[in-house]
Amino acid sequence: xPAFHFISxxxxxxxxxxxxxxxQNPRFHASMSGPVADLISCLLQEMSARxxxxxxxxxxxxxxVLRGVFEQFYGPDHPAEVIFDTNRSWCARLSLLQTLxxxxxxxxxxxxxxxxxxxxxxLIQRNALSPSSIFNYQAGSTVYSRADAIANGDGLVGYAYNxxxxxxxxxxxxxxxxxxxxxxxSDPQRxxxxxxxxxAEPAYAHDFDNVExxxxxxxxxxxxxxxxxxxxxxxxxPRDTVLPPDVFQRFTQDAFWRNPEINKHRVRVI
Length: 270
Description:
CATH class: Alpha Beta
CATH topology: Rossmann fold
Largest sheet: 6 strands, parallel
CATH superfamily: P-loop containing nucleotide triphosphate hydrolases
Structural class: alpha/beta
Order of helices and strands: EHEHHEHEHHHEHHHHE
Strand content: 5-15%
Strand order of the largest sheet: 2-3-1-4-5-6
Shape: globular
Number of strands: 6
Helix content: 40-55%
Radius of gyration: 19 Å
């Protein structure tokens, strides 16, 4: 069976770029967010007390069933030796991952929160003719209502942010590494070296000038062309924000991972 690791963290923070780089290694499989986490959630619910037949299912059986999702989804003949599954909810599942796959690690991509909000808003404004699945394909909202929607606890950003804090401050934080978007795009060599060290895999010579990733059809169906686009060359490109100053300022104090005084589990932050 291949080794399993996970990519999680905040949206618009480099997870697609990280996957595009990792998949250059022929030993690795990595892609955009997939359905495995949702399959696990559905099975957990159906094997819980809400189902009258749950009395016939013990924890050993639950564990076998859930491990089987990983093993069978990717298949026993999958050519990769190391599989990275991507989903924002993995940060809220560290206890489960510790039970099912105790050697697995989670790389959480993070980014200054105002720029996460900015990146979503930039996508929406760029695709003015295509209402996005991010906002249930609704049109006519404002930048303020959009920021509120994605930042609340059930929103695209708010849920991921809360899951990240749960992982960072929780009892299984040793499984977690935070990879800052700013590091990934400005010093990709250092970023990838840290990932390889964290998962205890031998280094690989990545090509940071020829990065490829294709998800145009998925993005089009989601009403958000460019959602998973990556530049061919990894580079940091400073820009002005498209957010009003008060919206930008609202999120400027949210990068808790930059405060070493509260990093009680000494989570790696790269």
